[in-house]
Amino acid sequence: MRVAMIGTGYVGLVSGACFADFGHQVTCIDKDASKIDALNAGSIPIYEPGLQELVAKNVAEQRLSFTTDPQDAIRQADAVFIAVGTPTRRGDGHADLSYVYAAAEEIAGLIEGFTVVVTKSTVPVGTGDEVEAIIARTNPDAQFAVVSNPEFLREGAAINDFKRPDRVVVGTEDDRAVSVMRELYRPLYLNETPIIVTRRRTSELIKYAANAFLAVKITFINEIADLCEKVGANVQEVSRGIGLDNRIGSKFLHAGPGYGGSCFPKDTLALSKIGHDAGATLKIVDSVIEVNAERKKKMADKVIAAMGGSVKGKTIALLGLAFKPNTDDMREAPAIDIVAKLKEAGANLRAYDPASMHEASKIMPDLMFCDGPYHAIENADAVVIITEWDQFRALDLDRVKSLVKAPKVIDLRNIYKPDYMSERGFDYVSVGRAY
Ligand SMILES: NC(=O)c1ccc[n+]([C@@H]2O[C@H](COP(=O)([O-])OP(=O)(O)OC[C@H]3O[C@@H](n4cnc5c(N)ncnc54)[C@H](O)[C@@H]3O)[C@@H](O)[C@H]2O)c1
């Protein structure tokens, strides 16, 4: 199959590289020339484990190419994927669909022969109808079907998630389009990955419902963590105690500083708006949005409280900035709120993240970025663990102790055990663990 991928970001690049690896002929298109130039020069504009090798292999085998010019690739394509951003629209919280609609117009003028236009971007219910209307209006002779095919990959584990998904969702009522989609995903089909074919609107909603449900789970355990601190319980044991129940499941039950990233914040907000507009208010989702936003702000208060009520003039080392490990994505990361509030409270901040410092410097140019975790903690009055990168799980604690001014660790990801830390002489504060 010939595939054109419009948008070469986290989703477009991973999906394009994986489809190429399945044996399809893929052209990834982006209007950001610097991204395409970098890719053509052999470098990967994002941090994603394994992606560099996968891209290099498929470029070398001539199944994957990159361009800013959509013309040839779209003309020849059996399937054109839209994988552009759908960020929160300024002012009203709805998903901003301007990039999707611009891509639809571009596609309309170029497709030849029957073409499947696939929305991989996360889009509100009914967007596929609008994409279809735009293409039909712009090019009345076009032969096409618009399919919803939401993506569930997680940054940091994106290749594995794409190649071994729990399911693939395909939203269309067009049989020809279903055949094309089955052919595209054939290697998974042979692996017995469930392929769920639904109406397009249902498929669009599945993606939002999935993300909102996961955000509910995280926010629920975060509130339980607060309760644990008040009543002398341990949230990790609560998570294990409830997570082993198959009806609940153990994933997404780790208490922490609140969810961030490029998906949950904007998708919960967009789903809330979809519900309000449709007259079916989603009160649980609305509360989750509110509780999570408060939580991210409250994390700085937790640090301030752990330091005796004031951080003025204190040096604080921040370990991890990205919204989760194994990514450089800083979008809506809890670190952004934590940094802002600690700075306002007069702290001197020293930060280190293995992958996201370049991205972080665009959002927080004044932050002091360090060369490694041990550089960041030099002379610190406290060390705050914000992101649970593996390298922070295995710090040389004797070295840490010799470098800091005071052995205080505030662990917002619960990667150390309270007993273990106090035995080693640390004043240790974590999340939801009274013991
Ligand atoms: N990032 C994730 O983990 C993830 C997971 C699942 C779904 N999604 C969804 O996938 C979509 C894309 O997310 P992302 O994180 O990859 O975004 P991104 O911002 O990393 O990438 C989007 C890319 O699209 C390009 N673009 C925009 N309009 C274009 C056009 N007309 N022609 C060519 N290129 C264009 C941009 O330059 C950018 O490089 C979003 O809807 C998101 O919600 C993301």
UniProtKB/TrEMBL annotation:
Q: Which domain of life is it from?
A: Bacteria
For molecular function, the Gene Ontology terms on record are: oxidoreductase activity
- In what residue span(s) does the UDP-glucose/GDP-mannose dehydrogenase C-terminal domain sit? 317-418
Q: Where is the signal peptide?
A: none
Enzyme class, broadest EC rank? oxidoreductase
Membrane-spanning parts: none
| Gene3D superfamilies, sorted | Cytochrome c1, transmembrane anchor, C-terminal, NAD(P)-binding Rossmann-like Domain
Per UniProt, the keywords (alphabetical) are:
NAD, Oxidoreductase
Query: Which E.C. number(s) belong to this protein?
Result: 1.1.1.22
A matching Pfam family: UDPG_MGDP_dh
Q: Give the reaction(s) catalysed.
A: UDP-alpha-D-glucose + 2 NAD(+) + H2O = UDP-alpha-D-glucuronate + 2 NADH + 3 H(+)
* Keyword flag Cell inner membrane: no
- InterPro entries, sorted: 6-PGluconate_DH-like_C_sf, NAD(P)-bd_dom_sf, UDP-Glc/GDP-Man, UDP-Glc/GDP-Man_DH_C, UDP-Glc/GDP-Man_DH_C_sf, UDP-Glc/GDP-Man_DH_dimer, UDP-Glc/GDP-Man_DH_N, UDPglc_DH_bac
* Metabolic or biological pathway: Nucleotide-sugar biosynthesis; UDP-alpha-D-glucuronate biosynthesis; UDP-alpha-D-glucuronate from UDP-alpha-D-glucose: step 1/1
Q: Does the keyword Zinc-finger apply?
A: no
- PANTHER family membership: UDP-GLUCOSE 6-DEHYDROGENASE TUAD (PTHR43750:SF3)
- To which protein family does this belong? Belongs to the UDP-glucose/GDP-mannose dehydrogenase family.
Name of this chain's protein? UDP-glucose 6-dehydrogenase
